[in-house]
Amino acid sequence: MFAKVLIANRGEIALRVLRACRELGIRTAVVYSTADADSAAVRLADQAVLIGPAASRRSYLNAAAIVEAARLVGAEAVHPGYGFLSEDADFAEICADNGLTFIGPPPEVMSALADKSSARELMRRAGLPLPPGSVAPVPTAEQAARVAAEVGYPVIVKAAAGGGGRGMTVVHTPAELPRAYARTRAAAQVAFGDDRVYVERYLTDARHVEVQVLCDGHGNGVHLGTRDCSVQRRHQKLVEEAPAPALSAGALEAISACALRGALAVGFTGAGTVEFLVDAEERFHFLEINCRIQVEHPVTEMITGIDLVHEQLHIAAGVPLRWRQEEIVPHGVAIECRVNVEDPDRDFAPTPGRLERFLPPGGPFTRVDTHGRPGYLIGPHYDSLLAKVAVWAPDRELALNRLERALEEFDIAGPGIRTTIPFVRRVLDDAGFRKGRYTTGLVERLLAVPTDPPHRRTR
Ligand code: MV4
Question: How distant, in Å, are the alpha carbons of 117, 305, 431 from that of 396?
Fold first, then answer.
């Protein structure tokens, strides 16, 4: 195992990784920007290295500064967390060139999967079902129209270099296609420096189901079952649960087995997530593979009892996978919600500011991952995730009640600060959600229903 790991991230995930290292007897160093000088991770780490100003470009996205920090402290490995450089194949390569272990898959695997068109082709070859559409990028509007006519409308034009909901356009009619095609290409060129796009049938009102996998560098892999992440607003997940509800045992098993097959086929290593869309008939379609530890990983940890960050560290250190598939027996239900400092009444605009009160919930089977504390100043520079509240229970009904109970306890206050808690409570209250029958359309439907104006609300 590594003697020292550099944590190249901030916020709750920096703390999460730091704790895993501590538990494994690994010394920790964390990088930080001037905006994070008094963060919990900086206080708790064995060492902390200032790498730049608040702007991410010049700190958490600055590969050279991070590699230099690793050299300075003598770290052997870099844990990138999620976001920032976590899925940047060039960064993984730079780490390798500097004798550092990047905690994630090999750079070649990362770049093959970062290209969504290439990922689609690799998964097709591994036998995974895909949404109907083009496999290779579509070079002209005429060809896009031909593919669309073949698979039927609505279609979705996706940037090969996109992913996670970035760089995609839904097209409902043939008349809209030429402009949507041109617009998506132009936007992809600006956003990613790569204007290749492909065309798929747009699957409406499906469920977003993903599978957690762990693969070592010796050809072994296991899956840790499913998560439903259909509760999203503009591709930001708000509520996640494991296992995916209201699916037959057969469908869950088939999706999980496919995910693992796909990951092993491309030489994936580490902790990964294979995303699918599942329709009302339980047909599933591969979307993409994520190469990082995900925000919602705790729900999988809670139903399997496996610490995913421990496993990432062991795999990166070359240890053969420590679990056989038969040993992974999911138990009960876990649900997580994100507490973002955003105002649900103002289009989820961030509400940075100082936390005057911050008292997270506690109690049985209740896990809070947060970097918040009373007096903490939430700056405007980074994403607005302040906390994740995850609960476990033997059944889904109790898990929902437990999460509601936990959210009622959470006391967060400060000048101007609002959180996503009231909106998440509406989700938990929704009849369809309660039954486990919900799709990616749920959030939009809830947002279309007017709520009490803010001044009449008690919290
Ligand atoms: C789709 C889709 C429907 N049909 N592709 C979004 C994130 C990225 N992983 C892929 N995503 C989707 N791809 C086809 N062919 C639906 C989504 C999608 C989604 C779309 C609109 C609103 C919310 C969504 C949540 C998850 C996935």
Answer: 37, 17, 14
Q: Whose CA is nearest to atom 11 of ligand 1?
A: 165
Containing 161, the helix (H) or strand (E) segment is strand 155-163
| Whether residue 357 has pLDDT greater than 50 | yes
Domain ranges of the chain: 4-103, 132-201, 207-455
Q: Which residue among 185, 292, 367, 396 is the active-site one?
A: 292
Which tokens go with 167? Answer: 């760089």
Q: How far is the CA of 207 from the centre of ligand 1 (A)?
A: 9
Q: How far is the CA of 208 from the centre of ligand 1 (A)?
A: 8
Domain 132-201: top CATH class: alpha beta
What would be the CATH architecture of the domain defined by 207-455?
2-Layer Sandwich (3.30)
Look at the pTM and tell me if it is higher than 0.85.
Answer: yes
Which runs of E-coded beta strand occur in 379-444? Answer: 385-393, 411-413
- Residue the block writes with tokens 């040993």: 327
pLDDT at 459: 46
Give the Cα separation of 94 and 99 in Å (integer).
Answer: 9
Give the C-alpha separation, 307 to 305, whole Å.
Answer: 7
Q: How far is the CA of 15 from the centre of ligand 1 (A)?
A: 30
Nearest CA to ligand 1 atom 14: 202
C-alpha gyration radius of the chain: 22
Ligand 1 atom at shortest distance from the alpha carbon of 201: 15
**Catalytic residue list contains 354:** no
Who lines ligand 1 at CB under 6 A?
A: 131, 156, 164-165, 200-203, 208, 232, 235, 275, 277, 287-288, 440
For residue range 131-169, what is the model confidence (pLDDT) as tens digits? Answer: 999 989 999 999 999 999 999 999 999 999 998 889 999
Which residue has its alpha carbon closest to ligand 1 atom 20?
440
CATH code of domain 4-103: 3.40.50.20
How do the residues of the chain divide into helix, strand and coil, expressed in percent and rounded to 5?
35, 25, 35
Residues 233-284 have pLDDT tens digits of 999 999 999 999 999 999 999 999 999 999 999 999 999 999 999 999 999 9
> What letter represents residue 435's amino acid?
K
327: number of Cβ within 10 Å? 11
**How far is ligand 1, taken at its centre, from the CA of residue 167, in Å?**
11
pLDDT digits (tens, 9 = 90+) for 55-81: 999 999 999 999 999 999 999 999 999
